[in-house]
Amino acid sequence: MKTPKRYLVPEDFMADPSVHVFNDKLYIYPSHDWESGVPENDNGDHFNMKDYHVFSLDDVMDGKMTDHGVGLRVEDIPWAGRQLWDCDVTCKDGKYYMYFPLKDKNDIFRIGVAISDKPEGPFIPEPDPIRGSYSMDIAVFEEDGKYYLYFGGLWGGQLQRYKDNKALECATFPADDEPAIPSRVVQLTDDMLQFAEEPKPVVILDEEGIPITAGDIDRRFFEASWLHKYNGKYYFSYSTGNSHRLCYATGDNPYGPFTYQGVILTPVVGWTTHHSIVEYKGKWYLFHHDSVPSGGRTWLRSLKVCELQYDKDGKIITIEGLDE
Ligand code: FUB
Prior knowledge:
Layout: E1 5-7, E2 14-22, E3 25-32, E4 51-57, E5 66-73, E6 88-92, E7 95-103, E8 109-116, E9 124-125, E10 139-143, E11 146-151, E12 162-163, E13 166-167, E14 183-187, E15 200-202, E16 204-205, E17 223-230, E18 233-239, E19 246-251, E20 258-265, E21 276-280, E22 283-290, E23 302-307
Parallel strand pairs: 16-20
Antiparallel strand pairs: 1-23, 2-3, 3-4, 4-5, 6-7, 7-8, 8-9, 10-11, 11-14, 12-13, 14-15, 17-18, 18-19, 19-20, 21-22, 22-23
The structure holds beta-L-arabinofuranose (FUB).
Beta-L-arabinofuranose binds at residues 15-16, 31, 44, 47, 85-86, 136-137, 153, 223-224, 272, 274.
């Protein structure tokens, strides 16, 4: 389906939008791309982000985007090495918790927490990353006072360096006919600062109930986890990375397993694709990014939004990534 889309921040480069409704407004927490001069490679070194801006909006397709300025910067994080990638924010008891992936001084991705009294920040980082955290691309889903954190991504996201939540001596990719490396989900502690349990794999099954394999690159998880609920079902959505799609799978609870359903967004201009899905004022929206305004430079991405629709059976109607 071709659908009208809006670029949200035409004056700057922003990517990986995590979007939530707080105090009746939409708050957008993107990664902040910039021209750092780092050459492009499969490790993602060119995504050399150093701060986050926070935006809000109350009319999705036409309203003014308010830029609340910098919510967190890398130099304020005591354990920082480099690369602030996709974050997410949630609210508990009037406090706002930002979860962010950042490489530490040994160039290992860890997940940090930063706290604010307001959704727009500024966010004050905790002195250390979450114990036992690894990899990147955070999404937080809340239900009945429980907070579920989804994370993980392949290649530069370092997920292939871990198995059963332990670091491996060498990065290991499964053979093409073995189950794909899964995203992870974990509940947070009551104080929101640590993992309350061991992270669990987010298993995606095919229509016959068999785990999607590593060689099935059009359907397997790569990065950019997101969870939303529609008509009582849990929708786990993600990027397929090197096949450049946003796909989704549905399940009966936040841990899964989830059964593959289809493509949400076909490939966009640019290598990465990353999104969030949110309901606001009775409509559903897909927030994502592409590299059209930068002329295809993969590390300079622009935020976009469009409406997302379901058919009568709850299937998401596929959106065309290319507008022309
Ligand atoms: O923005 C850096 C990385 O690119 C993100 O963490 C991935 O999801 C991809 O969008």
